[in-house]
Recover the amino acids of this structure.
């Protein structure tokens, strides 16, 4: 740490720039400065107890304060608020009352803080433009996980080799990106080897809660082997149900469309973050099947964009390998296949993208109770057939209100959301257009009711 300033309050410290920032106190604002430094090109320093206007020390930290800040900083760095993980890149130094947070530029840029990317612009930390973020992603090149050197070099490929043989395709490890320029195995080789440490866990519950479980399995080995075995296990837990109608033949259908299960499982395994050691988690309830994939959406993408078919491959080498093995037919089509498989089913698909995971919730088509629209989610898929829709937090509050009340008016909406009439009208109209609410009456007597309640009361 040769570039750290020496403690000397007899004269002002140097001015702030792209590698120096001053804060009088340690608070939440420090998160943004750290994020911006992670996206920089040089080691940077955030000094605590120094006023930025005068550049003089105004506060001397005690040993007790040091330990408190050290613990809080450790929680930030090891939590999911930063992505990718900056563990090992952020350090705290203490020099006679002066605290300094040293931040090393990361190799896995861009680094996100709560889904936002920050960079240094002179002495300021500002939000990066979409163009800047895209450029950083493009410049990652060999810094992505699957092209980086594997920490395990004793690898065997019996399982993946058998997959290639079964399709009569030549197995050529070097052409598949198994080696780097130093002839060392890459993480793409690790993930498709027998020794792959990442797993998929599946739990089957009895009922619609996690209180009782019927079965549990953990799948290991090459990614291709995991996909095959997970899909086979889920097929056993996707029973066929028959429905008698007025027609001569009975109607049979699986609880979950096979194409939806296949695409959701493959997406979860292929596009997950392998910087996280958490397994892909699949839970089967009587009324739903949920798949949780570790890590946020890649590159700060929004869920709306993913649902529209946009894609930003997180593990391009893995995609290349599984594409050769016919697991992936085309980029950006998996989610749309899932949505299409539920068209006209009158069941609500649920997609959730958080900082630590991405979740797909597939409703059981044979479950008797009608699934209501969840009120605590940010985004659902859109479809002209009404099987899923976009639901914002504000819209969710309206739906939650209507679960306990027969109707809602514009005036009630204004008070509920603390907004003005124009915005209240806009939100209510969106819900009407999406066939979530029905408008009843007119003029000052206009009310809105849940379409779901109308269907259930008939």
């Amino acid at each position: 740490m040769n570039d750290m300033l020496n403690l000397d309050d007899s004269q002002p410290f140097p001015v702030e720039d792209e590698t120096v920032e001053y804060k009088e106190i340690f608070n939440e604002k420090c998160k943004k400065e750290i994020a911006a430094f992670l996206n920089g090109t040089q080691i940077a320093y955030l000094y605590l107890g120094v006023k930025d206007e005068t550049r003089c020390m105004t506060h001397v930290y005690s040993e007790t304060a040091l330990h408190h800040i050290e613990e809080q900083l450790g929680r930030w760095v090891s939590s999911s608020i930063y992505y990718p993980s900056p563990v090992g890149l952020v350090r705290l130094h203490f020099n006679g009352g002066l605290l300094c947070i040293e931040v090393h530029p990361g190799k896995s840029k861009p680094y996100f803080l709560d889904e936002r990317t920050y960079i240094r612009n002179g002495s300021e930390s500002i939000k990066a433009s979409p163009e800047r973020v895209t450029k950083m992603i493009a410049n990652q090149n060999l810094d992505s996980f699957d092209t980086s050197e594997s920490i395990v070099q004793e690898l065997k490929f019996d399982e993946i080799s058998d997959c290639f043989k079964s399709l009569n395709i030549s197995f050529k490890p070097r052409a598949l990106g198994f080696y780097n320029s130093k002839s060392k195995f890459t993480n793409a080789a690790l993930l498709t080897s027998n020794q792959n440490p990442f797993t998929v866990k599946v739990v089957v519950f009895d009922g619609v809660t996690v209180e009782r479980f019927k079965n549990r399995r953990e799948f290991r080995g090459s990614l291709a082997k995991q996909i095959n075995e997970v899909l086979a296990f889920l097929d056993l837990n996707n029973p066929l149900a028959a429905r008698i109608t007025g027609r001569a033949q009975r109607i049979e259908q699986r609880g979950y469309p096979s194409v939806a299960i296949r695409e959701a499982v493959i997406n979860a395994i292929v596009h997950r973050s392998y910087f996280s050691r958490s397994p892909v988690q699949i839970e089967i309830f009587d009324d739903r099947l949920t798949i949780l994939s570790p890590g946020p959406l890649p590159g700060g993408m929004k869920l709306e964009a993913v649902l529209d078919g946009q894609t930003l491959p997180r593990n391009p080498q893995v995609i290349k390998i599984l594409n050769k093995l016919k697991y992936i037919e085309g980029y950006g089509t998996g989610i749309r296949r899932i949505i299409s498989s539920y068209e006209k089913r009158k069941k609500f698909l649920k997609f959730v993208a958080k900082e630590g995971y991405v979740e797909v919730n597939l409703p059981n088509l044979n479950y008797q109770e009608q699934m209501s629209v969840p009120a605590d989610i940010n985004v659902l898929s859109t479809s002209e057939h009404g099987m899923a829709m976009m639901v914002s937090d504000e819209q969710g509050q309206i739906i939650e209100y209507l679960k306990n009340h027969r109707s809602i008016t514009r005036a009630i909406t204004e008070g509920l959301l603390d907004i003005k009439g124009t915005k209240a009208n806009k939100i209510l109209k969106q819900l009407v257009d999406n066939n979530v609410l029905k408008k009843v009456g007119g003029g000052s007597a206009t009310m809105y009711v849940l379409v779901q309640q109308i269907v259930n009361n008939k």
Remarks:
- The two ends are 73 Å apart (CA to CA).
- The chain has a mean pLDDT of 82.
